[in-house]
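User: I'm writing a tutorial on reading structure tokens. Could you give me a worked example: one chain, its sequence, then its tokens, then a sentence or two explaining what the tokens reveal?
Assistant: Sure. Here is the example chain.
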Amino acid sequence: MNKMENMSSVYDFDPITGNIPATKVEVTVSCRSVCALLGGAKSGESLCVLYTQGVETKQWREFGRTEVIDNTLNPDFVRKYILDYFFEEKQNLRFDLYDVDSKSPDLSKHDFLGQMFCTLGEIVGSPASRLEKSLGQSGQPREAFQNGNGIPGKKCGTIILSAEELSNCRDSATMQFCANKLDKKDFFGKSDPFMVFYRSNEDGTFTICHKTEVVKNTLNPVWQPFTIPVRALCNGDYDRTIKVEVYDWDRDGGHDFIGDFTTSYRELARGQSQFNVYEVIRLFFFRCIVTLLSFSVESEFTFLDYIKGGTQINFTVAIDFTASNGNPSQSTSLHYMNPYQLNAYAMALKAVGEIIQDYDSDKMFPALGFGAKLPPDGRVSHEFPLNGNMENPYCNGIEGILEAYHQSLKTVQLYGPTNFAPVVNHVAKNVTRTKAYAASVQDGSQYFVLLIITDGVISDMAQTKEAIVNGAKLPMSIIIVGVGQAEFDAMVELDGDDIRVSSRGKLAERDIVQFVPFRDYMDRTGNHVLSMARLAKDVLAEIPDQFISYMKSRGVKPNPAPPPYTPHGLTHHHTHI
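And here are its predicted structure tokens:
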């Protein structure tokens, strides 16, 4: 049996192609002789961005970014890309290299250095799964790239891509090192040492897998403990060589090499002992002693471990009923009910809800509206039940929510403004007497997902940020889908991928918000099934990681999976919001 066959999971399933990945591969990026923009100077700060191409649209979407590396023309990036590998698909990849000029996440603010196209199959199929190609010269239009070698003309260095199939090892090792009698490298002071860890590859080369922090001005450093997946350290091969290099940090990026030593995971696993005291050698000369102070290992739990152990995913939807949506009786309205096709609100709800409902045992979902005047007195509400029942806002399945949504459009008056905080707080707090909310369920048995569908610019940004910061302490995630053609720049601020949301000087404990504009997922041919599949795949992709980050932060472990068959069934207490 292929050692990777058991790694696929429900959230690895590709709703667009219907495929389940046979394996995952880890792609490592290095560059050599990168052209600096200014003369022969060193490149300032290098960043590599990976894009993948959509199967149907052929549009490029950003997949991820490496870390930024200072002052070198030969960057070896530590951050890896983990990709699902499909033998039967042409998986087009694009790697863009930038010289970073500021801390802005906007790539247009940085200098574009070069670009290379390839397929994942090319990398995997190359000798030793190592592909080396030229980067195209910067300063030319990207449309000029017609082949895998980038823009014709002057080369801008080379990019080296290495792929390795991941084992299914789920252990993570936590270790701490110290050193003494360090070789003094700085003329006016002591050294600023750091260590770099490499795992060996099957072809005898080495791949960087961890850098410690720099400990300033000492010859006897004690580095902070760090945690690393065992698969990253040795890919599950306990006897594979691990090389450790010790450097003296220099501001200009020309770090001084002190020396190195080799070990293995099996040796490190012995913990603090005479076996884990290493002489660091350079050119046969002794440089210092590095000692392993502590070593521990624990198994990482997956999203499916919790699902198998009985964790329920509770789904709540909140729909924007502000006047900017347009009169629902007119075909130009975003709320218009075309008898022949779903509107954008219904499509977004159905796309996300039909996947999440599989993790909710009773399929009863709270459905809320905001920004409308309610009968009979015309009061404005930002958290009203779509079914009109304040005591029991639950709808039976996704179809029940759609039915309640349609009925609400006939009874309420679209108004405003666009306030999110009330519905976020509604999910986060115990505001009803009959149901337990996220704030009262912190034992890992429940997780809550709020889907907000909106057409406009948020009106209560400060209050919403505060609600998100408070919600980040709870077992909940928030998905915001923007419909229509409005500018959604403010929404990006709530999505904490690049900059964590903060309120009143407090940072959110974790990123719990995912925002996407639905228009980016609309199929040009009018294939709404494909549009909905793309939307669901993207907005739900972060939920498992957000789920795990919460459980880890609270030390919550999954319950043992129940036996596959129980003759009389089990009574499970289910909680909703």
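What the tokens reveal: The mean pLDDT is 82. The two ends are 43 Å apart (CA to CA).
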